[in-house]
Please model this.
Amino acid sequence: MNIKKKFGCSNTPNFFSNEMVISKKSLNENKLKYTYQKQLISDLDNKHKEWSKFLGG
Model:
């Protein structure tokens, strides 16, 4: 069975690049950085909500 037929389109772009290689370690490090940054933003958002309660009332 041809893979292109399975997707129903002959011009389906490849998900992976043949020219770029990223190691699993690098992907995991980037995921950890993203998760950490997301948590920092969430914490800052909660702090701003707390501060606005004190300043607003």
The two ends are 68 Å apart (CA to CA).
